[in-house]
Amino acid sequence: MGTTYYNFGYVASGSAAKEVQVNATFDEIDATLHGLNMLSNPMTLAGDIIYEATSPPLATRLPIGTTGQVLTVAAGLPRWSTLATGFVSPMSTGGDIIYETVSPPIAARLPIGTTGQVLTVAGGVPAWMTPSSGFANPMTTGGDIIFESVSPPIAARLPIGTTGQVLTVASGLPSWANASSGFTNPMTTTGDIIYENSTPAAARLAIGTTGQVLTVAAGVPTWATPSGGGGGGATVPALSSFTWVNQSPSSGSSSARQTVASGPIEMTIHDGVSVLQWTLLTVAAPSTPYKLTVNMRGYQPSGSADGSNSATFGVYFYDGTKLEGWEMLLQASGAMRARVEKITNVNADGSTAFNGSGAGVTIVNAGLLNMPAMSNWWQLRNNGTTMYFDYSVDGANYINAFSEAVGTFLTPTNIGFGGLSITSAAQPNIVVNLLSWTVAANATL
After folding, report:
1. Which of 210, 320, 339, 387 is the most buried (most CB within 10 A)?
2. Omega into 289 within 30° of 0, i.e. cis?
3. 411 dihedral zone (left: phi>0; alpha: psi -120 to 50; beta)
4. Structural domain boundaries enclosing 54
5. Would you say residue 403 lies in a domain?
6. CB neighbour burial string for 70-79, b if at least 16 within 10 angstroms, e if fewer
7. Residue 107 phi/psi, 5° resolution?
8. Residue 54 lies in a domain
9. How far apart (Å, rounded) are the C-alpha atoms in residues 52 and 43?
10. Domain presence at residue 188
């Protein structure tokens, strides 16, 4: 069943007291009817709205508002109200920006900046500003480099250097400079070694011969044939590494043998029968500086020769024609002496440069050197300008007996050992035993 609405209205004329009384009566009736779900229509004009009042909770008329007003809520009840203006845009020009000011915190206009300006922050608010110049490129030429100068500490230009220059540091700053000559390689031959000499400077140590070991002599590295020691180690190069000089004169051929690999070489020099016949075994001299140290002995196995016998054995510089060497001279008369002999060729003697004593040096034990049980320690040295002839009685401590400038008599191309045997008739040959042979790449004593 539908709801029935009754409209009793309100009395608007008559005495005030009566009007109040009547209106109160109507209110009671309205309330009663309201409770009975019968609502009277309070609206009187087009556009009015019915709403529930607060106290008493009765249907109440809300008159239509004026044009432009909006229905809102005030004190918990609907009402017509003029619309508030809301957010008013402060912008006035294309490109303007709205931002919040600091004090008071309201929306404000930031006018558009000029062309090229950037949006930044100034004083805690956005602002258009012309950008600072930033990093100014000091370079002007291809290949320039930028570095930090010292005072003031700013970016500075280092012009490109010239071809071949290298970047280095001078006074704490980068700088282009001509490259130093750097390290000059002194090596010339496969197997050479570089070492620091006493100058000090980088020096070349020529490769040693097969079987040699690297050791130290006079404070510098040197290649040396290892000493035999108790085990009889290798001390002599292979016989095949030597070349004969005057092996077969008219009187007969000399011979040599090496029965143990890298062991001593026994050389038998055929008697020359009244003819000078120096016979040698040689190898090519190494590059200077070098020194050759040998231990050797010589003897005649069949006894003394006749009164005209002479024999020598020793170690020699050789240039392909001339010889100059340390020799032990043995004579049938019993005279023996060590000498440095200059020999014109294998068939012609020259002169004696050192005759066993001189320049403060005297070899006092020469008489012992013809005994088969004894041996001689000889040393030849060549530093490129001077040739030296040294001797030792213990193989460790050497004394220089004679020296001469290279080229005075010869410029050696080979080094070797040998000797001669000469008589007025066929006499026993001389036997030379090479017990040790050491070549070192220095010319120190």
Report:
1. 387
2. yes
3. beta
4. 1-63
5. yes
6. eeeeeeeeeb
7. -65, 130
8. yes
9. 13
10. no
pLDDT digits 0-9 by tens, 87-120: 778 899 989 999 888 888 888 899 999 998 889 8
Looking at residue 172, its amino acid is G
**Per this entry, what is the length of the chain?**
445
Is there a contact between 64 and 49 (Cβ–Cβ < 8 Å)? yes
Provide the residue type at 406 as one letter. Answer: V
Residue 187 covered by a domain: no
Half-sphere exposure of 110 (CA within 13 A, CB side): 18
pLDDT tens digit sequence for 5-46: 444 444 455 567 766 676 677 667 666 655 655 567 888 998
The domain total for the chain is 2
Q: Which of 129, 84, 125 is nearest to 108 (CA)?
A: 125
Two tokens at 94? 């294309």
Q: What is the pTM of this model?
A: 0.48
